[in-house]
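Lab notebook: predicted structure, single chain.

Context: the supervisor wants predicted structures on file for every construct in the current expression panel, including those that have not yet been purified. This is the next one on the list. No modifications to the sequence; it matches the entry in the shared construct table.
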Amino acid sequence: MRRIRGLLLAISSGVLISACGGDAGSDAPGANAKNVVGQPAALTEATSKGYALSTVIWSRVPIGVCWDLNDADFSRYAAQRNWTRLAVQETWEQHSGAKFTGWRQCTNDRDYYGIRISVEDSATPGPHTLGLGAMLNNEAGGMALNFTFRNWSQSCQGREEYCIRRVAAHEFGHALGFAHEQNRPDTPSTCTEPPQGVSGDTMIGAWDLASIMNYCNPEWNGDGKLSATDIDMAQKYYGPPPRSQTVYTLTRAQAPARVTAYDFVSRAAKASIDLALTGDYTRVDQMFASTDGQRLYVSMERSAASVDLVTIDTASNTIVRVTPIGPFLSMSGGYGVQPALSGHDVYVSSGNVISVIDADAGTLVRKLVLPKDFSLIKVVTAAEDAENLYALANEPGARLEVLRIETASGFIRSGYPAGSAPAAARDQFAVTPDAKKAYFVGFASPLAQGRLTEMDLESGIAHALTALPEKNPLFLAAISNRQILFADDNATSPSAIILYDVTSNAKSTLLVSSAMTAFVQYEPNSKSFLLEQNGVWSVNQLKPRAGGKYRDIDLGLRSFASGAVYGGVAPFVFVSR
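Prediction complete. Output recorded below exactly as produced.
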């Protein structure tokens, strides 16, 4: 029986402890696991497997990590702390969207979000976690690791890095909410290890011998490596590894225009993109990204009737194509641009026509022509509905209408009245990812005050959101099927950024400032919000903290560093690819 093998459930002062332990007379770490009898080959096949406790999956990433160590021990264990961090980076972080941050000494912050690690060397229970997943949140000694091995698993002495890395990879699996694989009720009789520690509530696929969380794995703690099925489980709950994250700032909007690309994590400038091109542009009109983050689009204006769309590859930060879109714009009114859900198509809406442009090829794919009396205000997509576009439009008789438009043909599949057209056009319009709800500013009459309105897209029934008295919302977005985000344009009054849950009617004011919000964008990986304010022109991040609070961080990424400032153009765009 090995000294180090997995996690043991102990009952101590009423607390469930998942502990790596064993009894005396242990085998050396790295020897074959015990109690595996003639394991059938079929059980080693990689299908989606795992055992997770779904109720304790962390609600957001990154997850903090700190060390409950005094100054002397924190310094003495620098190498061991680094081995721990590398083990986590090379396993859970490398293969999933799980991310950990901090890795400093713990403080007494009662709102701390993350895992507190102590270093202990007791014979029992050995390395352990106080439960699974978010049960560890801000718990002193929520995870205990061993760095010296004088009392526990003495066979690790002389090969501390080997043991520390493998134990850390296993324990952080528990910290993410993953139970022992042999705890599953479908564990085969060939694995005779008893259940240990807190069990999961969700079995994913068949039982997995190769899991790093399985005592019966022939390799101790999976040799510190995730199985293909460990990766499947981690990605199910935390998503795939994050892609390259970049913030593009509009450094100069006036000709000669320039965009600067910054790495989101390090904040270092990666590229400066010259948009002078032919040199006859007057200004940047709009800036936005493709849905998959592969492209950045910048519309460049010579005049209202002469506009080009610049396509930038976000991998190389080079210009792919410049496409004239002026020929697709009507002579009266403005225009809108919206990226397709996939590929490199862009929808250019103007008047009653939606032109589908292949922005990489610079060609017109097709035109979607609505009845001539319609005038499109804004066209959007719904993430889970590739077959339709959604539009807020003026219809004959100075009325607004919400349209569902077939992407392939331009056929209007449904249209619902949305109130009076206001005296001044309002282009705030959003649709939930599941395409069941639409949000816009509704008006009882052309001169009436607008109210944020929700429409059921199956029935067409609309009602004002009475909990939201804000009259001038900007940057309206449905960030999920139940949450909408917007900034309140109060001009000289304090301006707010608001997150509203339409199911629970919970309203959260994320920020109140005397400066108007120039742009706000949701960053789903960290569940934070990026914004700029008029006159400040620096990208800030609102990072979530405990208790529904947010920390406002100036990232120091500047827009409009020179030249004139133009309203109505996004001064930055966050891109994940």
